[in-house]
Amino acid sequence: MHETIRRRDAAQAAFDRFNGRALAWGRDDCLRLAAFDLRKMGRAVSLAKAGSYSSLAGALRALRRTGFATLAEAVDAEGLVRIPPAAALPADLLGGTPHEGGPWVALGVVLGNGRVLGFQNGFCGVLQPTPEDLATAIAWRV
């Protein structure tokens, strides 16, 4: 399958699965969104193997059980290469502003055309990061 089509299909699958979903820690959250995308892109995923959680505090405990101080470190450990956010392609991951000032970056899946699928205000939807958002974002090639 052509790489462009594979990326498009993975991003579309993430959109179909998560768009409009309410945030439910441990089931429908940015970590599960990123893991879903990685699987759709054919990658083995260890991101979500720290056990179950049902709150932000539980997610942070699960993260620490894996030995990582930040979610960005956990994504790095997946073997993904960091790239400039402006170079992100559909199905790449984008890490945005830390959640509630902690070690959590809000992960999203790049859809293309300046759009990202991610959680904001308790729901998953299409976001359009501003240049200021991208200046502080982290992106990974999937």
Report what the structure shows:
The model has no long low-confidence stretch (mean pLDDT 90). This protein has helices at residues 3-18, 30-40, 56-65, 71-76, 131-136; strands at residues 81-83, 93-98, 105-112, 115-120, 123-127, 138-141. By secondary structure, it is of the alpha+beta class. It is built from 5 helices and 6 strands; from the N terminus they run H-H-H-H-E-E-E-E-E-H-E. The two termini are 16 Å apart. A 6-stranded antiparallel sheet has the order 1-6-2-3-4-5. It has a single domain, classed as endopeptidase domain like (from Nostoc punctiforme) (endopeptidase fold (from Nostoc punctiforme)). A hairpin with a 2-residue loop joins strand 3 (105-112) and strand 4.
